[in-house]
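Before the break, one more example. Copy the sequence into your notebook; we will annotate it together after we see the structure.
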Amino acid sequence: MSKSDWVRGPAPCPPCWNIASIVWKRRWKPSREVSASFCPQFVLINQTKSRLISASVDDLLRVLAEFPQVFPEYADRRLVGVLASLYPDPSITTYATSKGVLVMGMGDETMDVLNPSALDAG
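Here is what the structure looks like once it is written out:
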């Protein structure tokens, strides 16, 4: 099973059991707020934007880099970054894929992962 099969098919771990909005305070910087889903093998960090730009990808990468320092109890889990927007620009999806960040956008009736191959890049 490839790393991206869990997006399209059966998950390699049980369903995520805790979805939370997390806020952490940072000295001399604004606090961060993210949505996170905690699974036995993964922590999914989601940011939802009305419009995605390349800086959205870069900001999420900074969040992913800070997360293990703030929450060391999850250091054994793979961090997966997810950006969601209704209709993301394909160029941003390509950039996010190269950085290992999943992008979700509106499909026929629901939000779909537009770049499951990002899991192989990350």
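Strands lie at 18-26, 29-38, 42-48, 78-84, 102-106, 111-113. The two ends are 16 Å apart (CA to CA). Try to locate both features in your own notes.
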